[in-house]
Amino acid sequence: MMPRWLRSLLSSRTGLFGVIVVLLIAVTALVSLFWTPFDPMLSDIRGRWAAPGWPHLLGTDGTGRDILSLVMAGARTTLFVAVGSGVVATLVGVALAALGALTARWVRETVAVLVDILIAFPVLMIAMMISAVWGGSLWVVVFSVGIGFGVSIARVTRPELRRVQQSDFVVAGRASGLTTGQNLVRHLLPNVAPVFIVQLSWSMAVAVLAEAGLSYLGFGATLTEASWGTLLADLQRYIGVHPLTVVWPGLAITITVLGLNLLGDALREATDPTLSRRGAEVHVPAVVA
Q1: Cα gap 16→9, rounded to integer Å
Q2: 177: exposed, middle or buried (C-beta count within 10 Å: 0-12, 13-18, 19+)?
């Protein structure tokens, strides 16, 4: 049977839109592993700047590459960065939140100060500083964005862990002999999962935007890797002559980020029971006697 939160998510227009966008990106990335209309990196000077039509449905760029194939291949990069940075953010966020909530006081205070310091640095600045040392690559984007948003997740999750830690079932778990790690896995993390998942979905949305921005600036994907940000940087120089070509990568970035953001909002509404109760409390009848 479908869980209540999932039914609530799919019944929401924003949630349904977010789910459809995420599935569309995932399917496109999977299909592009095996098939694209043309080789995304294949140049054809004779076919440069072809208008949308057959066989180039979205046209070609200044080197004759098929834009539809580049957009499909760019979905792989987007999915890789979103999932990869999400995994890194999860590990960093859970580790910092646990250290900041379940350890000795001096450790908690040290972690809180560290989180406050790290969160003051914009993610893009961290990524550009790391890229200056290690060189631009998607792995640098994944780790820098993941660490940056892991700190943000830790800052939001830590107070929730502290609150849940005082619950009776957690105290009973400790009394029954559960270690701190066992209590964290069995009781604490499942009870803060709604807050964590929402923050993670928002972080993945910003990760997509950060990857596009870093690739646009030359700190992300290399020339041999398809990326919406790199494609946008290549095409924007000719926007006055071929404006339609810039629309496709920009539209792909916009829809993806919008879908992930709306999915995060819908997940928050679906997993937070206080929001539904609050909505019921403020309901006003249409006719007042």
Answers
A1: 7
A2: exposed
Beta carbons of 93 and 150 less than 8 angstroms apart: yes
d(CA 231, CA 245): 10
Report the predicted TM-score, pTM, of the whole model to 2 decimal places. 0.82
Query: Helix 105-118 vs helix 67-102: angle between axes, to the nearest 10 degrees?
Result: 150
What letter would DSSP give residue 111? H
Query: pLDDT digit string (tens) for 20-74?
Result: 999 999 999 999 999 999 999 888 888 888 888 888 899 999 889 999 999 999 9
Q: CA 4 to CA 10: how far, in whole Å?
A: 10
Rounded Cα distance between 154 and 118, Å, is: 11
The CA distance from 219 to 132, in Å, is 8
| Dihedral sign from CA coordinates of 139, 265, 248, 37 | positive
Cβ-contact 147, 114 below 8 angstroms: no
In one letter, which amino acid is 129? M
